[in-house]
Amino acid sequence: MSDMHSNSKLDDLIVTLIDSVKGFEHSAEKAEAARYRSFFTEMAGERRTAVATLQAASRAEGGKPADCGSAAATLHRRFEDLRAALGGGDAAIVREVERGEDYLKEEFDRVLADQRMPPAAMAAVREAYASVRRGHDKANALKHELESAG
Fold this sequence. Notes:
Layout: H1 4-30, H2 34-60, H3 71-112, H4 119-149
Helix pairs in contact: 1-2, 1-3, 2-4, 3-4
């Protein structure tokens, strides 16, 4: 039997994580500095694992998990391109990545506070959240490092 509430919440997170994968891949292609490319590539891989974790949880709850991202994220990547083209370089990319990570963390925080989520689904969300936390904290640190240097 399908739990529509948990599947809806899981799907929201899955779509947002797929957007994150694509965003990190895009940022890795655009970044000039190897250290940023490496971080973005590493995070894209971690997020793919988080997507798979949540998709498995959705299936276990009787759902048919999402397998694509959102149109809004595509627009966000174009905005990142525009900022970089206008002279923002890696600093602009890192700022946009950090902004995306803030959004993703907020989405996860909402689901983690949801008392209606079944224990197995919540365990999968917590597991995926570890990647979100790491990515958020690292992107935030990189942004502040760039602000201090500039």
